[in-house]
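Hey, I'm writing a tutorial for new members on how sequence and structure tokens pair up, and I'd like a real worked example in the thread rather than a made-up one. If someone can provide the structure for the chain below, I'll link this post from the tutorial.
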Amino acid sequence: MPGFIPWLSLHFLVAAAGTWLARRYAIHRQLIDQPGDRRSHQVATPRGGGIAIVMALLLAAIVLGVRAPAERELFVAFGIGLLLVAGVGWWDDHRPLPASWRLLVHLLSALVFAAALYRQGAPIWQALLAIVAVLVLVNVWNFMDGIDGLAASQALLTAVAAAFFLHGPWSWLAAALFAACCGFLPFNFPRARIFLGDVGSGALGFTLAALLSLAPGDGTITPWLFMLPPAAFLVDAGFTLATRILRGERWWTPHVSHVYQRAARRYGHVTVTNLYGLFSGVTLLLMWMLSNAGTGLGLVIVAIWYAFALALWGWSRKGLS
């Protein structure tokens, strides 16, 4: 394998240079998100910068697939799934597609990765977990990509956990994701000069789903603990979606009813992104402290943390209404 610092530097530079080019392309093609009642930003901003992260991840998958022959089929499946999710997102960034079409492509990408995972010897339940993880996280990262720096910084923190607690070539993929997010974030935070777009948010969700679905067989700690880093996103997206469905709203349409969106309107994007980062940063500390915990204790800790996150979500939503 290449040296760790050169590996990080390579993917940082690919993402940074790619984001700069993507911004120029978006301005040229008029791929601009305009402010509105159902958006959280106040200034017209180019979109589609996440294509740079996609390029960095594809480069990582190719290198790792070549250097780790035993994992090559799974890296090929990862690359195909990433291209499918990013491709439909890129199309949607240029010309909006029906939600059903995007979901169908997400399902296809999940099936491709899950089939390869099963062929690699994973039990059927782990392959099914991969399908669920892809469908959930791709859409959660899309739902939560609404303010400056939030989606990329949360992916960065989850990537840190995966890089540290997975082993073998997949920890190197997680490190590449971390570096790519670092290369993108200066263009997106504290003031966004370009957004991820659906191409980027979907790619982040797919990559994280792939990494987390490998935890049961490839991680060095109890797999339940990998549920901690995405807790903030899963709770805010999941319970906001459930609330909208129960109210009979058109839940698939744009809105500003997430806690992070309400908070950003009152306190600003930088404050909210930093608070979410602090919340998720604590989960990394918890994972490190509980790295030797058994499966039972890990499940209990995760349940307690999600109960705390739900209580915080409910209190925040009430205070911001």
